[in-house]
Amino acid sequence: MPRYNPAVIEPKWQAFWDQNKTFAAPTKPAEGQAKFYALDMFPYPSGNGLHVGHPEGYTATDIMCRAARMQGKAVMHPMGFDSFGLPAEEHAIKTGEHPRVQTEQNIDTFRRQLKMLGFSYDWDREIATTDVEYFRWTQWIFLQLYDTWFDEREQRGRSIGELEVPEHVAEMGDDFARTWVDEQRLAFQSEAPVNWCPALGTVLANEEVIDGKSERGGHPVVRMPLRQWMLRITAYAERLEKDLELLDWSEGIKALQRNWIGKSTGAEVDFFIGDDFEAWKTSRAKSGYPKKAGADVLRIYTTRPDTLYGATYMVIAPEHPYVERLTTSENAEEVGKYCEAAAMKSDLDRTELAKDKTGVFTGSYAVNPVNGEQVPIWVADYVLISYGTGAIMAVPAHDERDFEFAEKFDIPIQAVIQPGKHIADEDAKKILAGKVVYTEPGVAINSGEYDGLKTDGFKKKIAADLSAGGLGREAVNYKLRDWLFSRQRFWGEPFPILHELDEDGNKTGHVIAVDESDLPVDLPHLEDFKPHGRPEPPLDKAPEEWLYPVIDGVKYKRETNTMPQWAGSCWYYLRFLDPKNGEAAVDPEIEKAWMPVDLYVGGAEHAVLHLLYARFWHKVLYDRGVVSMPEPFQKLVNQGMILGENNEKMSKSRGNVINPDDVVKEYGADSLRLYEMFMGPLEATKPWNMQGVSGVYNFLGRAWRLVVDERADKLALAGNITDAEPTDAQARTLHKTIKAVTEDIAGLSFNTAIARMMEFVNFFTKQKEVPRACVEPFVLLLSPFAPHIAEELWHVLGHRDTLAYEAWPAFEASLAQDESVEIPVQVNGKVKAKVSVPAGADKDATESAARSDAKVAELIGGKDLVKLIVVPGKLVNFVVKG
RNA sequence: GCCGGAGUGGCGGAAUUGGCAGACGCGCUGGAUUCAAAAUCCAGUGCCCGCAAGGGCGUGUGGGUUCGAGUCCCACCUCCGGUACCA
């Protein structure tokens, strides 16, 4: 009767843990107690429920946490929900039901499924980003961003109150100064293009637009500029890149982030576009290089200032402010058309059509500051307005894109780099003739006084010379863009921002922040969620009393954009520490006690954006004294993807989705947990295999039978469990297992830890008697992986309380190895015999043992011993001749 | 193109710092138990030759270093993930 039956014991122990709040985390770790904060990337509660990918990472952190508790650490292990999101809003539009209703249903499903898997979360800390009391503090953090400017010199964010308004700005009047200050904030307004779909009457997210048509319905989508909120993440680019050094993340993830930040170093150079080049040059030599480019120059950015002499044309982006000025009347029509066409293209179109370069000549020229030569200026969309200065010098001989463009438009190609010796003479000739592009370093030619300099030295020298002449300077650029932080959606956090209105109800252009004491700004009641047909956000439909507050007799309009889904996930790890605090986002003492997150596990799809955004917010909060450490996530691990049984990505359309509910029903949560850990390394991509689940289920059954007498009518201890002292072999098996499992858990090598426990069970299944002193520690070792069966077995073994806080088994080094080891003896590198030597035998003992083997003696007898390698505990190798 | 990761039995995977390749599991084969089956237990299982003893081959490919290479070096191939005109 008492067969292993997870359907009975799992709900029983889950209820026990719930009722006893077994896994409640302390407010702070006790004095002198080590802490462990393990965080899972909280899920978006989709209508489909939990996916088998979720429990993978969640089980890994749960094992770490359960082991850490048994090792005496204070453990923080919370869970919550990233619950704002498009699907709930779409459902609301269709049905008229408030998105909160469906969101909460989905959360209930997720919570039930998570509890069903036996994770040791402190559920009293559960938060959802859609909780008003949570997003109150998301709004509060936005206000910190709004109240912060970035001091370039000190490289840190400071309160806007500490920003000194320069004289030349103050002179322009209060209004001007106020706008100037607003432009320095980390949260600022700007015009940015959105995907407006007139037919649907709504703005679409990028992923809802396919080939310029709406995903739903296939209606045309146009790009139009809209007032938006931006966050100045670019100010922190340098620190976001540099501080990666502090983190215990895989090199791959760090590289991904570095790549995204995209730091490059080079030079800015001004090309004169006026009449008297010599006079300009003389004045620049005196005045130096101005911070802002004047109207008399075209400022470019290049990473290859050593190719300045090879600049045969220039390109400005279609959106460059000088386009009109630089276009001569005879080119006006063509340039105008070109820029218009470019504006219509989405970013995607621009890059997808990248194969064929396009552009038009403006009719104007700039002067190359190093040699006074006239260089024609073109407009082309392969130059992006959002990077560098939006203008380049084109060096077709040494840049692939410029080369392609020059060939197409028949622009001269002037080589200025002699290729290195690794290039064949014939190829070098073609390069020098401008027939082939060469982008690697080399030696300067056709570069006046710089001829003969190597690329690296040239770069340094010319940067210094340009700087001395006031013509340029060293410069750094980042690919990272400022963060478009507003969405035209209902189901998101409202911005705590008010726009001042004049008497006619028009915006004056001034905005004020909602007072902290007036937070949260809750979402208004709407009659329905249907689009109102204008590009403005849906909150424009809100009732007057929400939309138009009056403060001190001044009427305001609330900001109607909402925040993107990223916002809530940027700081949830802080709120978990102090989820009920009504006075602060997180208590500083508590924050200090628990941060940073010691282990953060989640999918690689968040390797760039989520982690970059969260790190950015954290740094701002750090600068403003809200948190105590520069980085939030000390160690990061990305779990690998789980594929379907056919080795393809799991998806409904492929029909290969595995539902955790079904697996639990058939095998139990412990088997699901164990299987997901046994499949392979946590970080690897691996296919599902139901027979594998049955394999670990079988193992749990064997472990069960080791302790429980299956043939008894009631739950009873197996008859061969004794209080006898373990035999030497039994003790060694136990201690080896403890050592291996302990070390494997520390190294996140769960698959091998499970293999070691299987070996333990295989060994003891064959023993006539099983000492309690062996099986009890084993149950404790098993408990982080398969907690329900472990609790039940612990109970059967006669213990009253949960094993969650039992001391982790210790091993004795001398017992954690075999008494003697068998080592291979090689002759000329081939294994010819195996000899047994005592563990820890030294070199001489090992060698004589090898020599005394009959077969070895025969093989080496009478031959010259050329070399002898003896590695104690490993092998012996006789290298002989003759 | 660039960046990152990975290629090991029929399958998932293991192998500390260069030291017995294939732990553990699945699958397969045989056996015990059973009237029979399920369940359970035991044994075997990289490939090739051989009745066997034994021998040969073997970690994507080709070279190299070494007494010894899955592991280190060089050149390449394939697959997966990310990214893409970033000057």
From TrEMBL:
Signal peptide: none annotated. InterPro entries: aa-tRNA-synth_I_CS, aa-tRNA-synth_Ia, Leu-tRNA-ligase, Leu_tRNA-synth_edit, M/V/L/I-tRNA-synth_anticd-bd, Rossmann-like_a/b/a_fold, tRNAsynth_Ia_anticodon-bd, Val/Leu/Ile-tRNA-synth_edit. SUPFAM superfamilies: Anticodon-binding domain of a subclass of class I aminoacyl-tRNA synthetases (SSF47323), Nucleotidylyl transferase (SSF52374), ValRS/IleRS/LeuRS editing domain (SSF50677). ATP binds at residue 652. It is found in: Cytoplasm. Residues 258-466 form the Leucyl-tRNA synthetase editing domain. This is Leucine--tRNA ligase. The gene is leuS.
